[in-house]
Hints:
With 275 residues, this protein is an alpha/beta fold. It folds into two domains: 8-205, 2-enoyl-CoA Hydratase, Chain A, domain 1, CATH 3.90.226.10; 209-256. Helix content is 48%, strand content 15%. The strands form two sheets. A six-stranded mixed β-sheet has the order 1-2-3-5-7-10, sandwiched between helices. Strands 4-6-8-9 form a four-stranded mixed β-sheet. Strand 2, helix 1 (32-45) and strand 3 (53-58) form a beta-alpha-beta unit. Helix 1 (32-45) runs parallel beside helix 3 (81-100) and helix 5 (151-159) crosses helix 6 (161-170).
Amino acid sequence: MTLNPKSFELAIDGGVALITLNRPERLNALTFEVYGELRETFRSLDRADAVRSVVITGKGRGFCSGGDVEGIIAELFAKDARGLLEFTRVTGALIQSICELRRPVIAAINGVCVGAGAVIAAACDLRIAAETSRFGFIFPKVGLCGADMGASFLLPRIVGRGRAAELLFFGRVVSAADADRMGFLNRVLPVDEVLPEAMAWARELALGPAFAHTMTKQMLESEWTMPLASAIEAEAQAQAICMAHPDFKTAYEANKKKETPRFEGAPAAPVGAGS
Length: 275
């Protein structure tokens, strides 16, 4: 397995994979190449045992401003119906690869986060944002359906159907404070604290029980459509499986000794900030 993307930066250290979108002059707008490489990178990270958590951020003033107007949007007018469907399936595949990654994914949102960028943030498990960041599912502003790349699947789960409908119908750009009030964000911080905090969270997760985190992410997804009785039974089975995993006894023995547990596959010690 090779992890060597050309269209963005990737660094792996101490169990944490840091993805940095690197087109600051375009507010990290996505190109056809970036879409494809991001998708394949997330799929590869799912097979990388050394990776236990992931952070995605952007360089410069933007997290991601969506599809590049010059690099993508203009070209779409030359495509026929089949070509357009092929493109929209590619964009959706990126979001699916983030959601299906069996590790916690944190969005460190350093600035503008709109269009496809907002959907990428929604696909992450946790979102830490700069006070100056702005958010918008702006698809209606360009005559497109607000339900793009899985937005109408993801957003109601985060902010509720009413808020999701407001964001997806109007396509308005909202402040970090408004996005936080809606429940879209986990933390809002000064911009220079966003990536260090995201990396701190990611390192803590990397040192934790990776098997249990994988199970937690799976259950958050699976239980969404279950009735209560099915959900309780599913959690009973999931927890029984975790109890049979060596990490459960490791935590117990460490607690008896008043030590910090060293979970299976975890890095030896906390690493540097990596920012």
